[in-house]
Amino acid sequence: xxxxxxxxxxxxxxxxxxxxxxxxxxxxxxxxxxxxxxxxxxxxxxxxxxxxxxxxxxxxxxxxxxxxxxxxxxxxxxxxxxxxxxxxxxxxxxxxxxxxxxxxxxxxxxxxxxxxxxxxxxxxxxxxxxxxxxxxxxxxxxxxxxxxxxxxxxxxxxxxxxxxxxxxxxxxxxxxxxxxxxxxxxxxxxxxxxxxxxxxxxxxxxxxxxxxxxxxxxxxxxxxxxxxxxxxxx
Amino acid sequence: xxxxxxxxxxxxxxxxxxxxxxxxxxxxxxxxxxxxxxxxxxxxxxxxxxxxxxxxxxxxxxxxxxxxxxxxxxxxxxxxxxxxxxxxxxxxxxxxxxxxxxxxxxxxxxxxxxxxxxxxxxxxxxxxxxxxxxxxxxxxxxxxxxxxxxxxxxxxxxxxxxxxxxxxxxxxxxxxxxxxxxxxxxxxxxxxxxxxxxxxxxxxxxxxxxxxxxxxxxxxxxxxxxxxxxxxxxxxxxxxxxxxxxxxxxxxxxxxxxxxxxxxxxxxxxxxxxxxxxxxxxxxxxxxxxxxxxxxxxxxxxxxxxxxxxxxxxxxxxxxxxxx
Lengths: 234, 324
Fold this sequence. Notes:
The structure holds two protein chains of two kinds.
Chain A: E1 2-11, E2 14-24, E3 29-33, H1 40-47, E4 55-60, E5 63-64, H2 70-76, E6 78-81, H3 93-100, H4 109-119, H5 121-125, H6 136-148, E7 154-158, H7 166-181, E8 185-190, H8 193-199, E9 202-207, E10 210-216, H9 217-221, H10 224-231
Parallel strand pairs in A: 3-8, 3-9, 6-7, 7-8
Antiparallel strand pairs in A: 1-2, 1-4, 4-5, 9-10
Helix pairs in contact in A: 3-6
Chain B: H1 2-8, H2 10-13, H3 18-30, H4 37-69, H5 76-94, H6 98-125, H7 129-151, E1 166-169, E2 172-175, H8 176-198, H9 200-210, H10 212-217, H11 222-244, H12 254-269, H13 274-299, H14 302-314
Antiparallel strand pairs in B: 1-2
């Protein structure tokens, strides 16, 4: 479904990714793990067209999207729920969700809205409230709900548990499992190793802008190299 | 009843009625029984509200552009001047009444604003706020001088059958063009509000204003939204120009008359706030009118500064500004 080959990217003269390779098959949850500054967010920004890779290839459902604009990538169904949520604080919850279907999923907007509100009853209670006035957990729900409005083929979740309480984090991972159960493919980018490996099929560990370790989630959990790679203990 | 005419079309009869005004003001201040104290006050108040509506429309464009692009559009006054010349030319050469020309001029000015952003301001700025600011200033300098070269510095005016028409409402005589301008300005402000609140494009404009990266992840292209917002802001000027033309003069410097007032309104109402622009516009219109009544023509404008300073002292973010 998604295939990334030898991807190099960065900001101006600062290269961050040095040849990342990964793949996501349809129906999978794939976790990308790594410490702060490993290049996870840069990878996501390159995947969703916010920055242009310097070299390498990104193929999504058989189409080369390496040089595609961010709008074309959304239209293709690769939807990115960013780190820090980036919801629209000055808009109501309802308007935020409606904008999720700005380019894609417009035909079924009413149906999808009902579905998202069914998944997140909390949002249904706050439809008319300004999104910026909600708690961090509610904003994360909104960010995911807004992503779902675009009928994603593949959903990228970037650090969804960041800043959430342990209880909310638990709830979030249950939700990710539920979305996957409904047939969604997910690329989960997380710092939360244990819980991510518990729900993912496969995982990549990114270190210094390259894949240090890859494999089935179950095998990685017990791999001693995971701890050393992740914690930078060489 | 003459005296109310003077308040309605101040340019023409102003000096003629100056002496009378002083007597009246003295009458108002002393509560003198020989004068109809409430009527003259009411006339000035209503006149201020009416002109405030057009101020609001000019300020609305400015506040929209500020709210979305986060820049102060220095070309605002010059583009109002261009729109007024366009409306004037249509009236003089084609014989189109300014009211009939309103949709044409507004649409034309939308095109001018959109193109200006797309091909000039957006290009030279490459996303840097400072550069956008300078680009709008450059556009203003070029436009002002180009029109000065083409049309000279004279002031021009058109006279339609409505220019001096009056409506008698109770004890008041209201200038018809001003009532129309007020009503149309509020209607346009309402339409713009509905557009921003209820359409996907309006939502996208508001989204880009606060969270451009989040908007890009929804497939919204901020560069297009910026050009659109700039175009809509300038279209407001096109409408304002047509509403002003029957009761106002045109010259290459006419923008200056309004732009300072519009900046004041935008800051006073809260930068980027729609209700702020409308309420601020009417407040400044009334202040100007009452200032003129009580303090005279030369000292009157001080009232605007006083209200401005007072509002900013009490609410530094403006009347409807977001408190951060």
